[in-house]
# Entry
Amino acid sequence: MADKRRFALFAAHIKESLPNVRRVFDVAGGMGGLNAALTVLGIETTTFDSRRKRLPVRFAERRFTLEEPCECDLVAGLHPDGATRLIIEYAAKHRIPFAIVPCCSDNGMSYKPWMRHLAELGAQAGFTVSEGKLPIDGRSRVLTGLPLCVI
Ligand SMILES: C[S@@+](CC[C@H](N)C(=O)[O-])C[C@H]1O[C@@H](n2cnc3c(N)ncnc32)[C@H](O)[C@@H]1O
# Structure
């Protein structure tokens, strides 16, 4: 059973590490728990997932793709499974920050190599990638990517 504290703790991490963020896309957001926690903190959030059972939050009931118009200043994913790389690719496409708490890989990699791979992917796509950790049980490492400024 995943740790229910993850929503509030990841929301607080986002607010603290990216204080200027106003609008978030919560990709692969399940029932919208992260959305509810971010909304409490005053951050407008849209959750993308195909789940029908969900909380009463702003919700786009569909699979997220690279074609989604960008109406956010952060794209985030909490245990986003097969959408993890997509989040980094979307952030790269629109030159916006990303914040992810990865869990399962989409290619059979185990957790540590998967985390290394994602950090490298972010760096190759032109982000400064930093790592944090949530005080939760289970997969708790956070990768945050900030687009490098080209002067
Ligand atoms: C492990 S669950 C995590 C849900 C939620 N973030 C949480 O922490 O409870 C992974 C979710 O990813 C969703 N998902 C995977 N690929 C997706 C995509 N391309 N677009 C939207 N949702 C996706 C699945 O429907 C599933 O709800």
Observations:
- The mean pLDDT is 97.
- The beta strands are 23-27, 44-49, 59-61, 74-78, 98-101, 127-133, 141-147.
- The pocket of S-adenosylmethionine is lined by residues 27-30, 33, 48-51, 63-64, 78-83, 86 (CB under 6 Å).
- The chain has one domain: 6-147.
